[in-house]
Amino acid sequence: VVCMLVLTSFVQVNMYLIYVWGGCMDKEVQQKAVAMGKDCDSPQFKWGWRGLAAEWSSDLALSLSFGLGLNMVSKALVTWLASFRNFMWEQDRQRFTHFLSLIVQGVSKVGMLVIIGFMFLPEWPRPDRDLPAAQRCGFDPVYPMCTSILKCDTALDPNCCSWTLLCLAGRLEQRQRKTLFEKSIYGAFVVTPYVRICVKVIIPWAASWCVAHSSDAPAHAQVLGSLPYRGRCCCFLRRLLAPLFGCCRFLRRFLALLFHLDRRNVGGLGYLVHGWPFEPPVLVNADDPAVVAQGRLAPCQECRQSLIREALDQVARKPFDPHDELLEIKMHVLFLTMFAPIMPEGVWQSLLARFLEVQFKGTKHFFVRRRCWPDSASVLQTVQGKFMKLAIVIATMWHSGLVLVSYNPNLARWSATHIAFAWFVAIVVVLCLVNVLSMCFRRSVTPSRPETSSHELTPM
Q: Considering the entire predicted model, what is its pTM?
């Protein structure tokens, strides 16, 4: 619920940027957009490049919340919930955590768009647009919270907090609400995969490169040591560059700890102060020919030290989890089934981003994350079958709801009973049709068994 509210707040921010700060509700800005032959759907019409930067920053923040923050929160929640159960087998625990992670991420990510699609987008019966916000926004649960936080006096300022989600929806036309809905989908559907590549592959790889090519000694020692000690200018340079190199060292360690290193194996937050926790390897009996002859040590001392350094480097990295990687692919498939008909032009962009992300998996596995031990694929196969059945049910409910509720121009004339009955009938009919088609496909693919005669079954 908290994740859904956080993600919905980004939609609220986009509405504020476009219609309040961007002035798309003002007649002057609307006339300027009409003169250009466009609709006012961006703060760029009023603020130029500043409005474009603000809109891109909002999309980037939403993508980071989708690709990084939400995954970390859901993984911590699932791990905490799994600790309450006593599993007999490790595969049972993996199956439970993987399927629960799929449900938690699906509900939190898709739930935000469901709220917008079924509460903000449809033509629900609403009060008159010309009424003040104090009389028009009483049905919006966010409106009283906003007025209490900002301490608005509705008697003096009746339009205070008129920019809340459902309150502003009553003043927008259907095409404007549809544009905002598609903008919300674009950030989560198209921008997020590219941001995930940067956050999970490129930045960790750069952090690992900095860790591999730097020492834990003060980074400015070599540069400052080459400066002469005489002269006020040189002393000033020494004092000026020392904090700069110190900040760079702290930033390098912070990025490495956040994106690349496992905090449990490098000392946690102590890594920011002390750096690399392992001492240089010291070989015992390195020159003993008997030990070398038995094959317990490599014949080359440099080779031995490099093997030890590689082992310590593997231990310090974050582990590579195949379950998390396949979970991201499952979420992408779920997004495709739900949002491809709404935004067809975003399908090829999302597929291109997913193709690039899959190509970066090898780099992530070999150079960024700790290599995992081989494991059975039975858990992934079991969860895959359940996920496909669940995705079909969710997509059926979603698309039938969009047709009957969100994009229905006659929604205000229908009663709640008629809407619920038509929705239920549409879901049942589509699921029955999908089941019949699935059975026919399996019969056509499964090879038929040859018929056996009765004398072949008679025992000798």
A: 0.72
